[in-house]
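Protein details
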Amino acid sequence: PEGGNAWIGGYDILNEIENVHTQMGVCPQFDLLWPDLTVEEHLYLYVRIRGAPVRQEKALVKKALKEVYLAPFADFKTKQLSGGMKRRLSVAIALVGDPKIVFLDEPTTGLDPENRRQLWNILAEAKGSRAMVLTTHSMEEADVLCTRIGIITDGRLRCLGTQTRLKAKFGSGYHLYINCERRNLE
């Protein structure tokens, strides 16, 4: 940072960054998965990186699998998963170990509408117990998942508020204009 400070889970980001990393989950825009590891192996790897106690690993992995509806696929290698399942695994990796804050970079980009809606439901359920920061180009996604929306243009935060406030101040709703001309078909 150029100035100021922040704390995550009570840890100072300037002087306790190793502890900060244990409190943070990240779901990048593109899946970073190893094709020959299973779903469960990915989660064990990340729960260990997050520093969870060994005696809690199994329960945390099981909870993450359940949260994203991947429990039946725990033994599947990631190369066997569909695109939607890979995204859910990436979200599970971000959530495993109950981090205090989760950063999600366009988590539903490229998903079909059914998988997108399912992932929105997963994220909506998960957000109650932690802070979540979401980047998206979809206002529909922001409406569904966010309690506050910030709009950034040219690298600067231009506005911040609830959906209701932003719509009242800047939104005019939808307008549909149809121009028709009557033609004689004879």
